[in-house]
Design goal:
By secondary structure, this protein is an alpha/beta fold. Helix content is 41%, strand content 14%.
């Protein structure tokens, strides 16, 4: 319950002689209040009408003639949703303005296209150690992954396309790798000063002596250590490649430049059979535990990726020995599995890995993967947005900002991302979003931008009322 001024009254009264009893009930064509003050609260409360006039209820406001109206919010949830929608629209407006400014100030890409495509760009990233957002930049290294068996991963295909485009389909020579990285790193330093955190992504195999030989890795890190003001390096690797020898060499170099390290590992699921047999990750629970211990022993942070619904329905039916189970029931199982997987990654219990961060995302459909074929045949679909929300809510209730919600975006473009209305998902650019999809995506984007759980207010919709 609150009062609202009606600052247009004095002017209207002087011009027409209208009484406050008549004025506060005036409407626009769209049905909203005519007075700008009353309209403000009407629009932000989901269309709640003022209850009654408070004559002489705001004596200090001359523009209102000393009058006000009384608002009573009987449906608090609807009001919360309206405020959330307003925040999302406001953030989009600011975002578009900032985007225009960025375009006007956008540094030119590197003149060599072989180098330019290795720049993943800059974004704000929540630093769990600092408890605040920091500027983070991503650079790609076109080395590929010697494991190259993960059923859902489109990155090796992207490396193959890069090799076909620029190196006649041949593997990029080690000397050329170092040269390309030196050029893109120099370009980043020149065009994006004050980078706090640098992500180096080479298809998830940074510590692999096959994909990223020790001498090449050493040269890359030597260049990283020359980056001004850099505070943290983030890499991705297979758990089996996290050895004392590799970690000691890496941390010794970084330590000399006072740069902290985060090592990310694709855990994906707490179910070892699902991880090994169907996702083909090649990482046992034992290997994951050993890797986390080694990472922590060297003073680095460990983070794990967790996926919601990471495998085709036929795989899950085989895993559960439930050949007749419906797709809907399997999605509910996937939701529960994702919650357990966040526990597995972050918990300090005997069951858990005790990692420092988790990177949670729905399993989106990327081009050129085994999962893509299953999706085309109707054997896979991204989990609904409501399930993404549910898992995220349960996770952050327990672990807070240690859980990052990753964007539903990929450099090459996902073929399908979550939807509440389209079972097969919608395009990455959301051009075919329907119903409450856009509101949900806006809500999740707002959370990524703020890491504030209070913005997670579920938009009401007839598609599903169980959450």
């Amino acid at each position: 319950m609150f009062t609202a001024r009606m600052p247009g009254f004095s002017t209207a009264h002087e011009k027409t002689g209208i009484t406050p009893e008549e004025y506060w009930q005036l409407k626009k064509i769209n049905g909203g209040p005519q007075d700008p003050g009353i309209q403000f609260y009407w629009s932000r409360s989901g269309g709640v009408e003022p209850t009654r006039l408070l004559k002489n209820g705001f004596p200090s406001d001359v523009k209102s003639g000393g009058h006000a109206v009384l608002y009573v919010l009987k449906d608090v949830l609807s009001a919360q949703e309206a405020i959330q929608n307003h925040l999302c629209l406001a953030s989009q407006h600011v975002g578009r303005k900032e985007e225009r400014q960025r375009k006007n100030q956008q540094p030119k890409p590197h003149k060599d296209p072989r180098v330019a495509v290795l720049d993943g760009g800059r974004r704000r990233w929540w630093d769990a150690m600092l408890g605040d957002f920091v500027p983070m930049h991503t650079l790609y290294i076109p080395q590929g992954c010697d494991w190259n068996k993960c059923a859902f991963c489109p990155i090796p295909q992207a490396i193959t396309e890069y090799e076909k485009l620029f190196f006649n389909g041949l593997r990029v020579p080690d000397a050329e790798i170092v040269s390309l990285f030196s050029q893109i790193l120099t370009h980043m330093i020149d065009t994006h000063p004050k980078v706090h955190t640098l992500c180096l992504f080479n298809a998830g195999s940074f510590l692999s002596d096959v994909s990223n030989p020790p001498l090449v890795r050493e040269q890359i890190i030597e260049l990283v250590c020359q980056t001004p003001n850099l505070s943290r390096l983030i890499i991705e690797t297979n758990a089996n490649d996290v050895t004392v020898k590799n970690m000691h060499a890496l941390c010794s170099q970084l330590g000399g430049a006072n740069i902290d390290l985060t090592v990310r590992i694709g855990v994906e699921t707490q179910n070892q059979t699902l991880r090994l047999k169907y996702l083909k990750k090649g990482q046992t629970d034992k290997a994951l535990r050993k890797a986390v211990h080694t990472i922590h022993m060297h003073g680095a942070l460990a983070g794990g990726y967790v996926l919601l619904n990471p495998a085709p329905f036929s795989n899950i039916r085989a895993l559960l020995d439930a050949p007749e189970e419906s797709d809907e029931r399997l999605l509910l199982w996937a939701e529960e599995e994702a919650v357990k997987s966040l526990d597995f990654v972050l918990s300090e219990s005997l069951h858990g890995l005790g990692m420092d961060e988790a990177y949670f995302c729905s399993t989106n459909v990327g081009p050129g993967t085994l999962l893509t074929e299953a999706w085309k045949q109707g054997d896979f679909r991204p989990a609904p947005l409501r399930m993404v929300y549910s898992v995220l809510r349960q996770g952050i209730a327990k672990y807070g900002t240690r859980i990052h919600l990753l964007p539903f975006k990929d450099e090459r473009g996902f073929l399908a991302v979550p939807s509440n209305h389209m079972p097969q998902g919608i395009a990455q650019d959301l051009k075919n979003a329907v119903g409450c999809d856009m509101k949900f995506h806006n809500m999740l984007n707002r959370y990524r931008e703020t890491m504030n759980p209070f913005v997670l207010v579920v938009p009401s919709c007839t598609c599903n009322i169980q959450y």
